[in-house]
Amino acid sequence: MSEPPMREIECFLVLAEELHFGRTGERLFISQSRVSQLISALERRIGTSLVARTSRRVHLTEFGADFLASLAPAHRALVGVIEDAQSRARNMPAPLRVGFQGAIYDSIAAAVSRFEIQHPQTCVTIKELPLGDPFSDVLAGRIDAAVALLPVDEPELTTGLVFSRQPQTLAVSVHHPFSELGVIDAEQLAQICLVPITGPAPDYWQRVNSPSTTPGGATIPTQGGASTVQEGLSQVAFSQVGLILCAATAAYSQRSDITFVPINGLPESALGLVWRTDLESPRLRAFAKAIEEAHTCPS
Q: Which residue numbers delimit the HTH lysR-type domain (predicted)?
């Protein structure tokens, strides 16, 4: 049996995620033509087309999609074996990779510290997640767990803990008329352009965290777009748009040119600690417990 073509496999996996030859090349630090060569070599090796290419788009063939479904778990397992061996060989604590959507509040920092004290053989490594892409990294196995805004309705994910329920606020420039109000009703959102959250987050998530209609059904106009909180706040500060943020994020993001106005009539936001169901472990459950304890017994 010939050796597995690892470079071709890696290229196919990245292309299946990006669906773009140029971006695939950028991630792998190779040229776009080299990406095409590697994919063609893998297709010849297997004996059929894996990717359909047109002048406008790239997509997996039916065979390619089936191949990806079988290949991706095996590749993740192989990477995990190698990383575990490297960690043990260096006699270093095994990392718990956690992604955070937005700011890491004091309570979460305390939970991380508490967990590392209680589990000295595990260190927590942190990755910031894009505001509009809460689940891609945990689904792909690039992190072990994600602290993300709810809702979570991905069949592959488990929500191990729900915490930090917060009322919603509207960020507006201090020069916007809404900044003079002590509170606004959710129906008044139809009177302002909101900055939408951009990214591949599922539609059900977008409807809750970046709504396009009020609870009563009125259309909420939009303008611009933001993939991070700071990007959205920058647009708010220099125009007449608004951005919906939970009260905790608003408190963390105070600045002199923006006012955060409480919103009546929207459901509370909440954070969830989520992980891949097939990769659940005692470490993840212990980390969930540490976060829960930090929010119920902050002292």
A: 4-61
